Every structure is written in structure tokens, then in C-alpha cells.
Amino acid sequence: MRRIIAALIIASATMPALGSDPASVFYGRSIGHEVIEDVRMDCPEEHICMDAWFRWRLRVDNLLSGPALSKRITVATIQHAEYIPKYERSLRLFAVTPIESEEQRRLLGADYYLQQISPAHTMYCFKRQDPSALGFAVPRTFKQIDSDHPEFCFDLPEGSVQ
User: Fold this and answer.
1) 1 inside domain
2) Is the model's pLDDT at 16 over the cut of 80?
3) Most buried residue, 6, 32, 131, 158, by most Cβ within 10 Å?
């Protein structure tokens, strides 16, 4: 059995610090994720430990930076709990780094570590007029100027757009 008793060593040794290797950052989709049952995190006696290793299957749609990737990849990460389907479907931007150790790739059933994820984010823009001039209050407005045609861009709080 591939159970790890001293996974704290794995956790510190295998999740490289951001910036240690160039990450591949891409736009894509999650195909699914599940807990890796055979790999356990070390938990000191009399502590409550709730993190676990998870395996994600991702579809790579558009590589934005970093080393090239296959169209579908499998990644591993430590997280607290499984994501709810609605949030998982909203994820669009991913950053991954390769798992250098063959033993770690075999143990985790993945070729990459999942370093960062981000849901889709939409910014709206009005041409030539600040939203506040229309009586529309938004938390932040970003003014973009393209020659004589300014745009006033803003995002809306989650849940305010259906």
C-alpha cells in the first residue's frame, strides 16, 4: 500500500515555493478532482488536521506563459476540502509546476503541482462616461484611455450578475 505516514516531509519537500521553477500559467477548465485516498498527511498527536492531497484533471485551452503542456494534464495539491461543483466549474486560470521526482509523480498519480487557481472574472466597461455620472455606484473604477475614447471599467460583486 502506498500510505504515507510521514507526509509532512512530502508536503514540505514536494510543494515547491512559488518562483522556484517557472510555472505554466494557462486558461482552461477543471474536468474533476478527488482526494488521493492512499496518501495521508502527517498529523501530530492531539491535533486536528483537515488537509489532504487532491488530484485534479485539467483541460489546457490556452497557454499564457511558461513551459508547454499537453491538452489534458493531471495535477496534485494540498487542500482543505473538495470544492463544490459550481465553484469548480467557474475556475478558468491555473498555474502549475512540474513534479520533478519520479517517486512523487507515481505516488500522487500526477505530473504537476497545482500552485494557483482563479475563477473567471469579468470586467465591464462604459465608453466615455464614468458609471458614477449615471448614478451607478461601483466599488472601483479603472479608467482606460485609448486616444480620445476613454473607457471606465469596473467589476461587480459576485452574485450581482445573473
Assistant:
1) no
2) no
3) 131
61: phi then psi, degrees, rounded to nearest 5: -95, -40
Q: Which domain holds residue 89?
A: 7-119
Residue 162 lies in a domain: no
The count of structural domains within the chain is 2
As given in the structure block, the three cell numbers for residue 149 are 475614447
In degrees, rounded to 5, the angle at the alpha carbon of residue 28 between the alpha carbons of residues 101 and 72 is: 50
Question: Which residue in 129, 138, 133, 130 sits closest to 160, CA to CA?
Answer: 138
Residues 109 and 133 in one domain: no
Which residues touch 51 (CB under 8 Å, ≥6 apart)? 41, 78, 79, 80
- Count of residues for the chain? 162
Q: Which of 16-25, 95-104, 120-129 comes out lowest in average pLDDT?
A: 16-25
